[in-house]
From TrEMBL:
It comes from Desulfofustis glycolicus DSM 9705. InterPro entries: RutC-like_sf, YjgF/YER057c/UK114. Gene3D superfamilies: RutC-like. The lineage of its organism: Bacteria, Pseudomonadati, Thermodesulfobacteriota, Desulfobulbia, Desulfobulbales. One of its GO terms (molecular function) is deaminase activity. This is Enamine deaminase RidA, house cleaning of reactive enamine intermediates, YjgF/YER057c/UK114 family. Belongs to the RutC family. Pfam families: Ribonuc_L-PSP.
Amino acid sequence: MTNSIVRLNPPTLPNAGEMGYSQISIVEPGRIAYISGQVAWQSNGAPVPEGLVEQMKIVSKNARAALDAVAAKPEHVVVARIYMVDLTAERLEELMPPFIATFDGAQPCVTGVGVEALAAPDLQVEMELVVRLPD
């Protein structure tokens, strides 16, 4: 079987691979899953932590649980979109290590969007995924 997702970082674009993501993902035909934005809400009802990094770790855990639910792995993620309240270069730098760790070395395409607010006032980050389901 050929690789269902081919990732590219052409030399005519900034090398996103050094940052942990890809500029381009080419996807073979197949089933696609769209995973709703995951936030730092937990199934056990625990309170949302105040810190951005702590929230991102829970968001990552929730995203991984969603991948498990559709029998997919991080390598099957085509696109990850991050929505962050008060997006700044400093906050993005703080967020990136736990965000990139979500993908176990796979480098999906990534888009970061600064937003004024999310679904609740205590939420700082949300991640949605597009996944090419394995055959």
